[in-house]
């Protein structure tokens, strides 16, 4: 039997901006083909006028507390301030405030900057961090909240409702992609059935992809594809938010880390790969390819779409009319006959797929 990498035959689409190549490399190492369609881009810190304005505002008055939500975000903020010539002044101001960190990476960044944290929740959650602040009393306090690419409306509004003045520090602000071409091509690939998984590393990327799909009239088709066929994986529950709002099911790793996300994608795709015996052959479906009796078989998109449709209920007769809906972009019954012929050729012989006269086709599943 030929050795085949666990994700060989699968196509994974990546919409991330930051760390996209890292995630892609982990998946390629497992054999996947990766297609990039960035849905967002990051405003460079040194050029971000909003971050500069928020930082200088922080230096103008006293500060009671600062909340560091991410390590990379806090480090980037300090580096940007140093570039503007106000790094020492910022650290001096922070050293006299109560410092709270969301998790170990933020804690490490705080300590690397020569500061020390006063509180860090064991759960690494914003919710526990917020609860600690509210229970400590924030009325009349001035609190800086370091954001990381996305707003935290509930967190910030809760502090303000409790009487605090909140200065939001928008580190790594995300906006739409400068070039929509790669994302458009990725969305088309999802619609034509040639993408098997979409892992997301941030809520803004998921929201931006859905916004582009809606603006271009592709949202209903994209939602159907993500509901029924494409594996959607998110690094955590916040990232899954925009997708969950549309009823799209997602899988998430136990730890919100890039490596854990890649492992979850791999394990889920392998677990969902149909394996069956048909026409005396052992067949494993691999997204955009098939392994027959241990041998790799390249299968074109249209025949592969029909093989997947027949494998949903192995042995059941599927009509030509029903199979037309499985073809990328639809088609007529004649297109189904052509694709079935190409499928038989790709699998190496004609016994795997049976023609049931006047009814349709079925996989010749062994008892």
Structure explained in plain terms:
There is one protein chain. The protein is an alpha/beta fold and 367 residues long. It has three domains: 11-41 and 177-271, 3-Layer(aba) Sandwich (Rossmann fold); 45-172, Rossmann fold; 275-363, Winged helix-like DNA-binding domain superfamily/Winged helix DNA-binding domain (Arc Repressor Mutant, subunit A). The chain has helices at residues 20-29, 49-60, 71-83, 87-95, 104-112, 126-136, 153-161, 181-191, 203-215, 219-228, 237-244, 258-271, 301-312, 320-324, 333-347, and strands at residues 11-14, 33-36, 41-42, 65-68, 98-101, 142-148, 165-171, 174-175, 197-200, 231-234, 275-278, 281-285, 289-292, 295-298, 353-356, 360-363. The strands form six sheets. A four-stranded parallel β-sheet has the order 5-4-6-7. It has a four-stranded antiparallel β-sheet with strand order 11-12-13-14, with helices on one face. A hairpin with a 2-residue loop joins strand 13 (289-292) and strand 14. Helix 3 (71-83) runs parallel beside helix 5 (104-112) and helix 13 crosses helix 15 (333-347). The longest helix is centred in the last third of the chain and has 15 residues, at 333-347. It is elongated. The model has no long low-confidence stretch (mean pLDDT 90).
């Amino acid at each position: 039997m030929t050795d085949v990498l666990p994700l060989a035959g699968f196509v994974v689409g990546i919409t991330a901006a930051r760390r996209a190549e890292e995630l892609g490399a982990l998946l390629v190492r497992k054999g996947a083909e990766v297609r990039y369609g960035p849905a967002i881009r990051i405003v460079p810190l040194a050029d971000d006028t909003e971050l500069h304005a928020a930082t200088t505002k922080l230096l103008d008055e006293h500060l009671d507390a600062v909340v560091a939500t991410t390590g990379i975000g806090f480090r980037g903020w300090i580096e940007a301030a140093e570039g503007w010539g106000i790094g020492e002044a910022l650290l001096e101001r922070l050293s006299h405030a109560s410092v709270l960190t969301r998790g170990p990476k933020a804690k490490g960044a705080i300590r690397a900057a020569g500061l020390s944290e006063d509180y860090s929740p064991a759960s690494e959650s914003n919710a526990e961090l917020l609860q600690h602040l509210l229970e400590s009393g924030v009325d009349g306090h001035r609190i800086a909240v370091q954001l990381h690419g996305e707003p935290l409306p509930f967190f910030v509004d809760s502090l303000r409702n409790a009487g605090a003045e909140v200065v939001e520090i928008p580190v790594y602000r995300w906006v739409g992609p400068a070039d929509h071409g790669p994302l458009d091509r990725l969305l088309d690939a999802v619609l034509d059935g040639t993408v098997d998984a979409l892992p997301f590393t941030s809520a803004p990327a998921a929201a931006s992809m859905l916004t582009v799909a809606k603006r271009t009239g592709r949202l209903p088709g994209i939602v159907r594809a993500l509901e029924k066929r494409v594996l959607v994986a998110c690094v955590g529950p916040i990232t899954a938010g925009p997708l969950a709002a549309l009823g799209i099911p997602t899988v998430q790793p136990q730890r919100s880390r890039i490596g854990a996300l890649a492992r979850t994608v791999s394990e889920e795709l392998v677990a969902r790969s149909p394996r069956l015996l048909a026409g005396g052959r052992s067949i494993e479906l691999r997204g955009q390819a098939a392994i027959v009796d241990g041998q790799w078989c390249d299968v074109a998109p249209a025949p592969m779409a029909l093989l997947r449709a027949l494998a949903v209920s192995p042995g059941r007769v599927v009509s030509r009319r029903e199979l037309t809906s499985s073809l990328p972009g639809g088609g007529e019954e004649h297109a189904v006959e052509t694709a079935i012929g190409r499928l038989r050729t790709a699998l190496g012989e004609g016994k795997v797929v049976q023609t049931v006269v006047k009814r349709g086709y079925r996989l010749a599943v062994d008892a």
